[in-house]
Amino acid sequence: MPESSSEVLQRWVSRLRSPAVSAGDLRSCRAEVEPLAWGPSESTIAGDLAELVVELATDDRERAWGAWLGARAARFRADFRLAGRLNALARRLYRAAKDDSGLANCDLLSGAIAAEVGDLDHAARAYRAAEKRFLRGGDSRGIAACTYNRGLIHFRRSEFFEALRAYESAKDAFESLSREADGAICTMNIGNALDLMGRHQDALENFKTAQAVFGRVGDDNRSARCQLNAGNALAAAGKKPGARRMFAEAREVFQRLGDDRMVAACLLNEAELEPEGAAALYGEALEIFSRIEDKPGAGECELALSRLEQSPERAERAHRMFLELGDRLQIAAALQRKAAFAGNPAELLEEALESVEAAVAANPDYSFRFLAVRRFADLVPLLVDRHLNAHDLDAAWQIGLRASLRRVSSEPDRNEAVLQIHLLEDAIVLVAAHGGVLTAERIEAGSEATPEVIRTCSGEIRRPNGELSRLADLSARLLLPLWGVLKQARQLRVLPGAHCNQIPFSALPIDGGRLIDSLAIVVSDQPRGDPLQGDWGLGLAATRSSFANGLIDLPSTESEGRILVDRLPGTRHLHQGQATATRVREGLADTNLLHIATHALDAPSNPAAAALVLEPDAAYPSGLLYGREIAATRATSRLVVLSACGTDRQPESLAQAFLTAGAKSVLASGWQAHDEATLRWMDSFYRELAGGASAPAAHRQACLEAIRGPFADPHYWALWKLLG
Predict the structure, then answer these.
(1) What is the Cα–Cα distance from 718 to 508, expressed in whole angstroms?
(2) DSSP string of 169-183?
(3) Which whole-number Å values give the CA distances from 271 to 243, 281, 301, 306, 314, in the listed order?
(4) Quick check: helix, strand or coil at residue 712?
(5) What is the DSSP string of 579-630?
(6) Is 570 helix (H, G, I), strand (E, B) or coil?
(7) What is the CATH number that goes with domain 539-723?
(8) Is there a contact between 292 and 306 (Cβ–Cβ < 8 Å)?
């Protein structure tokens, strides 16, 4: 039976400590140890070996390798300061020895250290530098490692499409080197990316493939992790019996291996699927977390048990744990649980909301923000409802506004009414303002939950000629109670709330017609002030019509660009190879109007992975421009038009990324766009805009013309929403 990595390292420590050690031993040690796939569990013995190598080394190359080995061991022990110092020493010695292969390994380790401490930009640069050196030296193993690590960086940035390509390339490279286990690690990570993109069945197939390989090579730990991941994919796909079986089987393996933390992780996953036995499972996990002094895990269990056992004492314990850890989101969760036990007093809900806001402010990452908003979506409506019950309209209004990223001006506006919609479990809270006067209604939700009605309507309207009878029901719930106030204005601004991005407001029937017949509609929390009309000079149209990788061509996008050039003189049109991600991102910072016509890639489970498919260039080899990168750009555009499918399908969408960047307004789509119908709609929209109409008025007129034309079905025109 071959030696394990730990046994090889220990053998060389014993050999180098013997009196008969020779210079040839150091060379043999490096040749045998350097290719080993050792990890955190061997870091102590590897650190001992590194010290012996540095002590016995007779030249710079040997000392450099010893320093690098020590740096790698320190990295696995999470001593990143020491790891950085030793790696820098190794780099200097390798440079003096003119050892390019050693420098490549230093670059690779530098990237790993940077990734561990969260400096992903530094990590990406280090991996690119290492890859160039490995390419020069023809080191296929090193090239594969760099490709794999680039995949990890893309994954952490939620750039899942690029992560998939990197993992697949690394998998092929490792398999060509007969490194089956490393290829299986890539396969497992491909599954993780697919699962987060919502492609659960594809993810499951990859987890099964990887698990089979790990079983053949005897890696029981990774095999069990594949089972755990497969269980999560099955649970996300609604296949609970299969998920339970996977979790239980993985737990048995982790118990045999003595990995308590992973045993507890399996118990938590099982508890989420077992309403009857959940308390016992959480209790068992709590015992493990307490024994291994894992406070975050213990706090999570206490919080879950407080809900299941209706125990204020457990909620209080969880609150104290999270306060000690400084975890603001978990603090908010504990406060919300304490508030529920106390009858939801406004002061506790306020404190929880402040904790969420502080967490988001401290971590502006796009994915984090989305997850925080989704997790605490019911906190704001609960607080609004509490203030309404106390007849405090002003407090309810201000709390509602805090749910938005930007505040709407409170100055009276006779032309615009503002509507907030809050969906509770047992009621709908509507708050409206017009002309400086606040009005509110609390409506019992009835037998069928409003979120379910919204989802049903959304599903119907996304199909041509779908059944639209539920739209009247939705309008009766959300518009009719305050219609007497709203219809006095010429424009309606709807502030985002739970599920509101799924509502086809333009198509809602009201007052004998549709809402778009009576009012121009803006769905946004942007401040008022810019009329979004007038001179649209410095315009830019970026269009792409030909695609690979299974994406269908979009022949009408080039015509959209020509419409802008004809309607709005001074507009530049980038098409074919010109419409690169770099030029579009630059255009966001130096244009008044930016029109982008292309495909959009959607990842429902993680909106930070949504991307626009543009032409590739040196900075963006894949041509994908992600929401995270858009949000980080300083935008000057007064209007961004996203002529692509599903760019405002969910709360943290591509459209929201442009608003976060600073765009005044964004025109986006809620579902799949039809090529010819889109071209006609855009022609009407830009004709009105060129004639001096404001963006909301142009949007309304384009919808009204569509209703009178061959694409009258709301499926073809109600998808276009003006945000901002």
Answers:
(1) 9
(2) HHHHHHHHTT-HHHH
(3) 11, 6, 10, 14, 17
(4) coil
(5) -BHHHHHHHHTT-SEEEEESEEE--TT-GGG-EEE-B--SS-TT-EEEHHHH
(6) coil
(7) 3.40.50.1460
(8) no
In the three-class reduction of DSSP (H, G, I as helix; E, B as strand; rest coil), residue 664 is classed as: coil
**CA distance linking residue 612 with residue 605, whole number of Å:** 17
Residue labelled with tokens 């142009």:
698
Distance between CA atoms of 669 and 90, rounded to whole angstroms? 53
Alpha helices in 218-294 (DSSP H): 220-236, 240-257, 260-273, 278-291
Contacts of 302 (CB under 8 A, 6+ apart): 286, 314, 315, 317, 318, 321
251-276: pLDDT as tens digits: 999 999 999 999 999 999 999 998 88
Q: Phi-psi region for residue 549, left (φ > 0), alpha (ψ -120 to 50) or beta?
A: left
User: At 240, is the secondary structure helix, strand, or coil?
Assistant: helix
Strands 624-626 and 639-643: unpaired
Query: Which residue's structure tokens are 């979506």?
Result: 377
Look at the pTM and tell me if it is higher than 0.90: no
- Tokens 């309209």, residue? 393
With the C-alpha atoms ordered 524, 529, 534, 538, is the resulting torsion angle positive or negative?
negative
Q: Tell me the three state secondary structure of residue 522.
A: strand
CATH class of the region 404-523: alpha beta
Q: How far is CA 383 from CA 351, 352, 449, in A?
A: 11, 10, 19
- Cβ atoms of 521 and 553 closer than 8 Å: no
CB-count exposure of residue 425 (10 Å: 0-12, 13-18, 19+): exposed
How is the chain split into domains, by residue range?
1-31+39-98, 404-523, 539-723
Contact call for residues 355 and 331 (beta carbons, < 8 A) = yes
Which residue type sits at 329? L
Q: Which two tokens stand for residue 7?
A: 């046994």
Amino acid at 690: A
Q: What are the per-10-residue average pLDDT scores of the chain (724 residues)?
A: 83 91 87 84 91 91 94 93 95 94 95 92 93 93 94 87 91 93 95 86 94 92 94 90 94 94 94 89 95 94 94 95 94 94 89 87 70 75 76 67 44 74 79 78 74 78 81 88 90 74 88 93 64 68 86 89 88 90 88 91 71 90 87 86 84 80 89 91 93 91 94 93 88
Tokens for 366? 């796009």
Q: Model confidence over 468-525: pLDDT tens digits?
A: 888 888 898 889 999 998 999 999 988 766 567 778 899 999 999 999 999 999 887 5
Enumerate residues 6+ apart whose C-beta is below 8 A from 359. 328, 329, 332, 368, 372
